[in-house]
Design goal:
UDP-N-acetylmuramoyl-L-alanine:D-glutamate ligase; 16% strand; disordered N terminus; alpha/beta; 11-stranded mixed β-sheet; elongated; 2 domains; Indigoidine synthase fold; 38% helix
Length: 682
């Protein structure tokens, strides 16, 4: 299965296409903004690492704080995870910062240091600030980020048994299930009492590496032992997975020692700490101002050695933390695949146990974008297909099979695998196990697609699917908005359906073709009301689909809801009682009312159906071919239904029998069709 980008050119058409896990509902609204690239990674189950911003706003001076923040994000990226620096900008929590936003925080004066207690006030007043460990943990947990990397956590201050100066970081670790990777606690604190307090809070603490010695931030030795030890990233991931699996509300602290060659002498640091503490007492510096003062004075008193250690440990924590996040992601995916729901006793046993299982093996060529381009090519169009493949035996087979298509814009990459999907299907035709190698889809970048900007801007229609990176989708939508290009978006699956809807990009789309589950996921992302359950009876299905499509039609021209055996529901703007698939003048569109038309599927017996993969793509390609040929709405839809019915009977995702003679206006008019029913939308 490869995929995925077909672009229209002149009379030609075009399409863009790409692992997928359960998606939690992200915190949305006026208080929170999740950067689209971060949310995309979370939706796809890729590893994400949260990063705090107090170290930027209060830990180091400009411009060193900015270069440090950039370096840490780059380390996380190079190690296979997505960085999500958390900060507060003008009364809104940002989970993931742009480079401009990083610079804003790094160069701002008098921004707030934001812990749990500060969040309500800072947000209500529209202020900006850097989030502490506790503030970052709250945001990370709300977004579904499991691993958070910092320098060192707060703790019990020296003399805390009298002053009761205990960092909110410790209580947050006791009530928020996020794994914190740090170089222990800051050396300026009472490490022994901090460890005791963490035990009281029920926080699992483990030293990382060869020793159980609990690190003291700048120094590798503190004189205290951690309760537990994890030797590498995989062991740390197992520990975190166990805590999450138990549903415990407390966090995990992974204490990583500073690299040996950059660690500061414990004696030198302790002497500097005592002098800085004495100065702080004489100046009356306490509370949240104490830690920044101490860190600044330590750097001065140690001639920069403490700052050098600080930078080294932060970078090292980023390497270790991103490795843990990658290992945790792999572990969670493996466990999900191993926990498939049990079948009824009458179902044939699942493959497993290491033995060879009898069955038939068949290779086909699919992918949403490829399917659309294939079907459109068979229907007399000449789509320019943009995608990426490896230089391997799979790509040779694909290019040979797709000789009837324009594959001149395919990107071929060394040392990359052509996207491949292996499905194990039961005798009842249901998916038992699926395994996909789809990483090459991330190579369908904005930079690659921009090489074809002229083609895109001249196309009457551009098709794009949910497999490509979010930045590519946003680039195409921006072009469409600027040049008034019609864009069709194929959601691909429930977990990828919402990509354009993570920002205002979706408002540039013309058509979308979701099923009911994908339509619900889109509305969830937009924060719209959702049905408690999806119905199965036709009348209820139509009413639910209409309710979910309505908010989208404020900007989209048409929503084609695919209903499987129940047919399709066409939702759009109506002039004179019928939906027009071709966007009209703005003044006409403004005067149009909304309606939905249900078209029953072409009847096919169960015995005739050999493959359901690709039928939806064939349906949409048939509709688009009709639109490009300027046929009326009924003809377009029924051309799509004819194409889908042929592909259902074919082992190939797109039936080789699809052609301009088998799927045409003449074929539509020569058949008798069940009556389409119209619903008014309110």
């Amino acid at each position: 299965m490869i995929g995925k980008i077909a672009w229209s050119l002149g009379k030609h058409v075009s399409t863009v296409a790409c692992g997928t896990t359960h998606v939690r509902r992200f915190l949305r609204g006026a208080y929170v903004r999740i950067q689209p690239s971060v949310q995309e990674a979370l939706m796809e189950g890729r590893p994400v690492v949260a990063l705090e911003s107090t170290i930027i706003t209060h830990g180091m001076a400009y411009p060193q704080n900015l270069s440090m923040a950039r370096d840490v994000e780059e380390i996380v990226t190079k190690n296979g995870a997505v960085p999500a620096t958390v900060g507060i900008l003008r009364g809104q929590i940002h989970i993931g910062l742009t480079d401009e936003e990083l610079e804003f925080l790094a160069n701002s004066k008098n921004v707030t240091k934001v812990s749990r207690r500060d969040l309500p006030f800072v947000l209500s007043q529209g202020l900006s600030g850097g989030t502490t460990v506790s503030g970052t943990m709250i945001a990370a947990h709300k977004a579904g980020i499991r691993v958070f990397v910092t320098g060192g956590i707060g703790g019990v201050h020296r003399g805390g048994e009298n002053s009761l100066d205990v960092s909110a970081d410790l209580t947050e670790l006791g009530r928020t299930p996020v794994a914190v990777v740090s170089a222990g606690v800051k050396s300026i604190l009472d490490i022994g009492r901090t460890l005791e307090y963490l035990e009281t809070q029920g926080v699992c603490v483990a030293a990382f590496g060869e020793s159980r010695e609990f690190p003291a931030f700048f120094s590798r030795q503190s004189g205290f032992q951690a309760p537990y030890q994890v030797r590498d990233e995989e062991e740390a991931a197992q520990l975190i997975a166990s805590a999450l699996g138990l549903g415990m509300s407390s966090g995990v602290l992974i204490a990583v020692p500073c690299p040996k060659e950059r660690a500061a002498s414990g004696q030198v640091i302790e002497e500097a700490i005592q002098q800085a503490l004495s100065e702080a007492r004489s100046k009356g510096i306490t509370g949240k101002e104490l830690t920044p003062f101490m860190l600044r004075r330590l750097s001065e008193l140690t001639d920069g050695k403490s700052l050098d250690s600080n930078l080294a440990l932060i970078q090292n924590n980023a390497r270790v933390g991103s490795g843990i996040a990658v290992a945790l992601s792999k572990l969670q995916k493996a466990r999900r695949k191993g926990n498939l729901p049990r079948r009824e006793d009458t179902t044939p046993p699942q493959p497993g146990g290491g033995q060879t299982n009898a069955g038939g093996v068949r290779r086909t060529f699919g992918g949403v974008g490829r399917n659309l381009a294939d079907c459109l090519s068979r229907l007399g169009q000449t789509p320019l297909f943009l995608s990426a493949v490896g230089k391997d035996e799979h790509s040779e087979s694909v290019l040979h099979y797709c000789h009837h298509m324009d594959m001149s814009a395919i990107l071929q990459l060394e040392a990359k695998n052509t996207a491949t999907y292996c499905a194990v299907i039961t005798s009842a035709g249901e998916l038992s196990v699926g395994l996909g190698d789809m990483d090459i889809h991330h190579q369908i970048t904005e930079q690659y697609v921009s090489q074809f900007k002229e083609n895109l801007c001249q196309a009457p229609l551009v098709c794009i699917d949910g497999n490509v990176p979010l930045s590519t989708i946003q680039y195409v939508c921006q072009l469409a908005r600027e040049h008034q290009i019609a864009v069709c978006y194929e959601p691909t699956d429930e977990n990828k359906a919402s990509k354009p809807f993570l920002s205002d990009s979706w408002k540039a789309l013309t058509y979308i073709s979701p099923n009911l589950q994908e339509l619900r996921a889109i509305n969830r992302t937009l924060g719209n009301p959702l049905p408690a359950e999806l119905p199965t009876r036709l009348e209820d299905v139509v009413q639910t689909a209409v309710a979910l499509a309505c908010p989208l039609l404020l900007h989209l021209h048409c929503v084609v809801v695919t209903l499987g055996a129940l047919g399709i529901l066409l939702c759009g703007k109506s002039l004179g009682g019928s939906i027009s698939l071709c966007p009209g003048p703005h003044e006409q569109a403004a005067a149009a009312s909304l309606c939905a038309t249900h078209y029953p599927a072409v009847h096919i017996s169960r015995e005739e159906i050999v493959n359901v993969s690709g039928a939806g793509d064939s349906l949409m390609a048939g509709i688009l071919a009709g639109i490009l040929a300027k046929h009326d709405t009924d003809t377009c839809v029924r051309m799509g239904l004819l194409a889908a019915s042929l592909s259902l009977r074919s082992y190939e995702p797109v039936s080789p029998e699809i052609s301009t003679s088998s799927v045409s206006q003449e074929q539509v008019k020569s058949r008798s069709w069940p009556e389409a029913k119209v619903w008014k939308m309110h």
